[in-house]
Amino acid sequence: MIQGMSDTEEPESEDERRKRLRQRRMSAHRSAERVLARPGFLGTLRERLALLERAPELYNLDQPSDMYGDGVVEALEERTAGLLGKEAAAFFPTGTMAQQVALRCWAGRTGDPAVALHALAHPEVHERHALSQVSGLRPVRVTGEPRPPTAAEVRGLDEPFGTLMLELPLRDAGFLLPSWEELTEVVEAAREREAVVHFDGARLWESTVHFGRTLAEIADLADSVYVSFYKSLDGYGGAALAGPRELVEEARAWRHRYGGTAFQQFPTALSALAGLERELPRLPSYVRHARVVAAALREGFAEAGLPWARVHPAEPHTHEFQLWLPYDADVLARAAIRTAEETGTMLFPDGWDARGPGIALTEVSVRAAGLEWTADDVREAVAGFTARLTEEMKGANGAN
């Protein structure tokens, strides 16, 4: 019998234990006085509703409410198309639906259901094979390496494809972006193969600093672009597909078939307009400060004498990046939570993902709250975290 348990109690399952740890982590994040980012989706309902307090500055609230995609939804679509330099845009409730529709439309135009994409792209990792199971498309993996695909790989793919999908940035590889030259070469390689190019730009908004180009210049390389309104802009949800007007009109028809033309969507549309107004101009400052934070993390862990710590990429391409440490994921999670509970500072609010025996990674995001942190603040927080990590390690070794 486990110590502390009565003989009538059921032992805690692994799923229950992880759920409990996650709830404790989220509670610690909400209560922490200092964090690098406070994404809106972790807020209370009251805090989320406050996002619309400035709605009168964003749209005429005396206009009729939207019905099946008109009104404020159309205003959001026009604003998005203008920012991306495309002829038109269509609002979708989810990015998964937007991209399936886009790729399905392109397959009809090219006559080829094959979609070339990275093995770590969102449809391959997070959508339960939706491209093939729902849309009748055939994913063709360009590469599985944890980096953006190269022009040589696109040219050398040993089967034809109608569409090349590029995720910018490639989240699961560390929010990586190619250089501008590499991106233009990859697009040209697809053109040489008479394929169209679609950008999975869920986080495209924060790519301008790395590329040194405007959103419209980046989007101009692709035939169509999907963007998210909540991942970086803090909206309630929603996405948009932007491209040629004829494609977008067809996408609206498929949106209806997929059940995505909701009756009223004004709260989500207004929150997206708020994100474009408030968060979009701030993103470059987040990206630049993420580089300060990343450098300070490396310095802090080196000063703490850890065997090794890897910030990936070394200079973040966006305001998000990965941190790898050579410890068990649960030990790292407990150390991060304890640091927040005992000091009021939460350096690592996201979960830790085990990537092998004794090695794990977490994602670090820098937003408005992180702009207040100096490099010294980061190094001090690392010292507090590593002290508790050492204690957790001793406890784990003692238990074994």
UniProtKB/TrEMBL annotation:
Q: State its cofactor.
A: pyridoxal 5'-phosphate
Q: Which GO terms describe its biological process?
A: glycine biosynthetic process; L-threonine catabolic process
Record's keyword terms, sorted: Pyridoxal phosphate
Q: Which domain of life is it from?
A: Bacteria
The record's annotation in InterPro entries points to:
ArAA_b-elim_lyase/Thr_aldolase, PyrdxlP-dep_Trfase, PyrdxlP-dep_Trfase_major, PyrdxlP-dep_Trfase_small
Under PANTHER family, the record lists:
L-THREONINE ALDOLASE (PTHR48097:SF9), L-THREONINE ALDOLASE-RELATED (PTHR48097)
Name-wise, this protein is Threonine aldolase
User: Organism, per UniProt?
Assistant: Streptomyces naganishii JCM 4654
